[in-house]
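For consistency, the fold was encoded as tokens, as this record shows:
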Amino acid sequence: MCLNDKEMPTYILKHGDIDVLQHYLTVTANRMLPRDLLLQLHLAVDSGNEQFVRLLLQHIHIDLNWAWFNANNFNIKFKQLGVRVGMLRLLHEEFNCLFGLRSLWEVALTHSVRCNMVDSVQYILDNLTLNSELYNMLPKCLRRCAKAGNINMFQLICSTPTCKQFLMDNLFDATIDVAVDHTQEQFVNMCINFIMAKEQSQVGPRRFSMPVWCSHLPTVNINIQWTCCIGQHSASHQWPPFATMTL
């Protein structure tokens, strides 16, 4: 295969071979690599090879303003099992580019949620300051938890201070709907208990809106103690819900 100067860096990036990268840099007298590679950095990250990514970024002029503008609608995917904390730390602490590349951190977060990479999700949420972007990503993360019935991941996300400000009632409704569709009964019960605890911790009466799947139940003021039980799941994927109130 014969590759020109523009194609060779992309080819090296896709394969994640540090020896090939080092040879290329030697041949080119350590010339800086094109900044367009920032838009394909996920390919190197997906290799899981931290030394390769470090050497790569040392030879790219990291222009985050340019990368942010050009990567907003850039569709990326990871094939490997999550993104490990070591890689995330390298991107953030050594090169300060994890959260400067919007598509990169967003996909790293949702992919790590799906792969149940608890430490990776915790690291991203603990270091994230882009609250407006998290507002858009949080529903997707919680839907992934609901689909898999991943209670531990759900509780981790909801307990993170960065996320708490975005935990609105309609977000829980949509999350429960997904859990119902995937017959995650234990997750549904946990989610309802979480909502009740959240409502009862508020000062003054709160209005609790039941989700779509039990919309025939009345909306009540939450200044009373609720005990919600979910019945058995039927073949039609509908939960016959019922609730009791203890005054």
Observations:
- The chain has 13 helices and four strands.
- Residues 206-213, 215-247 have pLDDT under 50 and may be disordered.
- Residues 23 and 29 are 10 Å apart (CA to CA).
- Residues 131-148 form the longest helix (18 residues).
